[in-house]
Design a protein that fits this description.
Layout: E1 2-9, H1 12-28, H2 33-53, E2 57-65, E3 71-80, H3 85-97, E4 100-106, E5 109-117, H4 126-138, H5 144-175, E6 179-184, E7 189-192, H6 194-200, H7 211-215, H8 218-234, E8 238-246, E9 251-263, E10 269-278, H9 280-291, H10 293-351, H11 358-386, E11 391-393, E12 395-398, H12 399-409, H13 411-417, E13 420-423, E14 428-431, H14 433-449, E15 458-465, E16 469-476, H15 508-518, E17 522-528, E18 532-540, E19 546-548
Parallel strand pairs: 13-15
Antiparallel strand pairs: 1-2, 2-3, 3-5, 4-5, 6-7, 6-10, 8-9, 9-10, 11-19, 12-14, 15-16, 16-18, 17-18
Length: 550
């Protein structure tokens, strides 16, 4: 059902709202006044019963989609109350007004739905349904109670969001490896994370500007006071180094303190945000470098070795490129004799079938199977080498469309194995559609190939999106593998299972890894032998227009 509007059922004013909005939705769907009134009266009778006898009751109005493009207006009243005689009377009365009234009882929960079919349902398009939703969202309050109720809901929503935001900020700041604080215009520290309080050994309630004199090195106090005065006058960011006393060790450690002014919507500085980073080790290194000439010599040697390393890396890259070229050319050159091998094997099977004994037929079959494995290996080698030799264009890619197309491609295999595939909706990203299709095709193929005997294969494709990246998990309930092998599984030609039972070249997951890397992403695996295998593909949402691979 497409939900249009929801009404809480707590008192008589809510009953009026339920009646009016039921009438209005029926009117928007083009139903006559008498039908509107009958429908709304039936809804009101059930709503009244929910208000009288239940708790946490509410009503949901929407449009149901039926077969043959038919649609119906639906009102569902939810309540948590015993199904008493009063409920039976209300339902009985509603059934006299509406033909289609259903009751579902699930433990203490009651769901009463009232349905009214829409004539000429074809005119109720998706855009029309959105306009219905927008109408009720923007509908002016019908009474002072309705206005107060709406504002109360908005305030509750804002309060919940604020609590969640504050909790998230606290959770994040307490886990970042730096000290964070904020100071208002009165000099009161209004926030400090756990790192700062643990380091200084002073709770937030006792932290103030004067507290810094207790923890700041004597030689740094005058300089910090001068810096803070300039900060207040110029209202520009402060970035300076001071020594702070650590409570647990009673030692002074060097820290970088950054303080930034925060302005409100009227460009007035109302508070300052501060970050403190431990740079003591860095300062010790700097001091040691100043005093120790041997370290300077070591630094020069390090530069020399760095140059040598870069030369070796360049030589290694050149060698890798030449190996890739060799693999590509060798694969191409092997295809022609392989085609002839298939051709002559086919001639032997067709022309000399009656003159070859059973042993010869077996030899011929073995030869054909071996040639087939060689053909598959050459195909995968070519696919892998091409990933390192071309410039791929990136564009907008609809991952949902790619997965839907792949499920159609694997339709026969899925049906033959009786597999169950569950997929969450996937968003648009920047990437190369052909290569991303190849990546997920390999993962789906493996999930079907490595199914457990006698167990219905289940494949779950889930998605978690952040502002910058997308994490897609392909999980199956197949034979899995030893978790100790999770790093080896992406190596070229690496196989963890018998070739006789599970055919393949051992290149498929290497191709997946290379495609993920070309998209500045990654792929990882987790599994349990005999239980499941799960592959996590992480891709950035934005990319440049193309990428060089050679």
């Amino acid at each position: 059902m497409k939900e249009i509007v929801r009404v809480s059922l707590e008192n008589e004013m809510d009953l009026i709202l339920a009646h009016k909005r039921s009438m209005k939705l029926a009117e928007l769907c083009g139903l006559s006044l008498s039908v509107q009134t009958t429908f709304a009266t039936a809804v009101s009778e059930i709503a009244r019963c929910a208000i009288e006898s239940g708790a946490e009751a509410f009503m949901m109005l929407g449009i149901d989609f039926l077969k043959a493009n038919r649609k119906q207006v639906t009102a569902i009243i939810y309540d948590t109350a015993p199904y008493t005689d009063r409920w039976q009377e209300a339902v009985s009365y509603a059934k006299r007004l509406a033909d289609n009234v259903k009751v579902v009882r699930n433990g203490p929960r009651i769901e009463v739905s009232i349905h009214l079919e829409i004539n000429f349902a074809g005119i109720i398009s998706a855009s029309k349904l959105e306009s219905f939703t927008q109408y009720f969202a923007e509908e002016p309050p019908i009474s002072p109670y309705d206005e107060i109720r709406r504002k109360n809901i908005q305030l509750q929503d804002l309060a919940q969001r604020l609590r969640e935001s504050e909790a998230s900020y606290r959770f994040l700041s307490d886990r970042l490896p730096l000290m964070i604080f904020s100071v208002n215009h009165l000099g009161t520290i209004t926030f400090s994370n756990k790192w700062l309080q643990d380091f200084l050994g002073i709770p937030l309630t006792q932290l103030d500007i004067a507290s810094w004199q207790q923890v700041l090195h004597t030689d740094d106090q005058h300089r910090m006071a001068s810096d803070l005065n300039q900060l207040l006058i110029q209202k520009k960011p402060l970035r300076a180094q001071y020594r702070l006393r650590q409570k647990s060790t009673d030692k002074y450690l060097w820290h970088m303190i950054s303080i930034l002014p925060a302005e409100n919507d009227r460009d007035m500085t109302t508070q300052w945000i501060g970050f403190i980073v431990d740079i003591h080790a860095q300062k010790q290194v700097e001091q040691t470098l100043k005093d120790n000439t041997e370290l300077k010599d070591t630094q020069q040697k390090l530069v020399y070795h760095q140059q040598q390393l870069e030369l070796k890396i360049e030589a290694l890259n050149r060698s890798n490129y030449e190996l890739e070229q060799f693999a590509h050319l060798a694969s191409h050159d092997l295809q022609e004799p392989l085609r002839k091998l298939f051709f002559y094997a086919d001639v032997l099977q067709q022309k000399y079938r009656d003159t070859i004994d059973a042993s010869g037929v077996q030899v011929l079959n073995n030869m054909t199977q071996a040639a087939g494995r060689m053909k598959e290996l050459i195909h995968d080698l070519l696919a892998y080498s091409e990933l390192n030799q071309h410039e791929f264009e990136f564009g907008d890619v609809n991952l949902d469309t790619i997965l839907e197309d792949l499920l159609k491609d694997f339709e026969i295999a899925i049906r033959d194995k009786g597999a169950i595939v569950r997929k969450q909706p996937l968003p648009m990203i920047r990437g190369n559609a052909l290569k991303l299709r190849q990546l997920f095709s390999n993962l789906l193929s493996n999930a079907l190939k490595y199914a457990r005997t006698g167990v219905t294969p289940q494949i779950d494709i889930t998605c978690l999106q952040t502002p910058d990246a997308l994490a897609i998990t392909v999980r199956d309930n197949g034979i899995g593998f030893d978790p100790k092998q999770q790093d080896r599984i992406f190596e070229l030609f690496e196989r963890l299972h018998s070739r006789a039972r599970y055919p393949g070249t051992g290149i498929g997951l290497s191709i997946c890894k290379r495609i993920a890397e070309l998209h500045h992403g990654s792929i990882s695996a987790s599994a349990e032998a005999g239980q499941y295998a799960s592959f996590l593909v992480t891709l950035p949402l934005s990319q440049q227009s193309y990428i060089h691979t050679a």
